[in-house]
Amino acid sequence: MSTAGKVIKCKAAVAWEVKKPLSIEQVEVAPPKAHEVRIKILATGICRSDDHVISGAFAMPFPIILGHEAAGVVESVGEGVTCVKPGDKVIPLFVPQCGKCTSCQSTRGNLCSENDLSEARGLMLDGTSRFTCKGKKLHNFISTSTFTEYTVVHENAVVKIDDAAPLEKVCLIGCGFSTGYGAAVQTAKVEPGSTCAVFGLGGVGLSAVMGCKAAGASRIIGVDINKDKFPKAKEMGATECVNPLDFKKPINEVLFDLTDGEGVDYSFEVIGRVDTMSAALASCHSNYGTSVIVGVPPSTSTIAVDPMLLFTGRTWKGSVFGGWKSKDSVPRLVSDFLGKKFILDPLITHTLPFEKINEGFELLRAGKSIRTVLTF
Q1: What is the pTM of this model?
Q2: Is 52 a catalytic residue?
């Protein structure tokens, strides 16, 4: 029996307040309005950015349905939607692509003006929500909200992918893999023979390692305080790994020592801490080194940095979603995966049923998982 045009009651993981476990609830998901798409989510990854919201580091309005790294099937579409149709396999896009704003039209930009990252409202573009629970409105998370059996997104925030794609794997292309891999190949444009350092060896950091390797870097130094992540990092392409806790001197000085006093050509901060952002900048070559901020910084944080680090010629950049234009790039990345141009399996360390979502977050916090994928 068709559910198109009707309210759907389904399970969702609701974050009612900061620093509390998610609660599996029955929610009501309204039908899509004009230019909106309702998606049946089939697989969703647990990303550190979701945990930053729960901890309060990434400020968002509550109550909220989190999740942004997913894949599913279109259930129904609102009036005027032509980019997808019911039954299509799709990936929701936390960085939309409207095609009209200055960032979308520029060859140098990808952060569409319709994003809900910069000044998060937690609502659809018309200022309303499609989710209710126990009579209360629930907020939407960065244009996607995928910790639910059904979600509604704007047509600018969804893209059709190849029907052959295994959703429980390509969901990572919705955030983690694309963000890290793109930071290396798209944002930094790592060159063959270069030396790189990746700070943070979680799912996004390992994807950055993969990007550096694909770009032909000759040395890729993994930096993490959890040495248990080193074997996986080397499997993915790191040539060596260092633990800052093993040294008495600052990690940027350690990296200079490891590179004969030159510093690395490219460094990537994939943690979201201001101290490691500064260390990553200071670790790259004083004249032509490039450091890329990939990890989401805490909402109220600021950085105090010696301007001489930049005056001498270093470049400091940020990278959202790996610099990819989402609608253009996600289907291409899925095709590259199907063509075996890169692998995703090593990044997925746990697959759990959706109801065990809190267990997945505990694995992340304990440093025991790279990516946990939840299936419905």
Answers
A1: 0.95
A2: yes
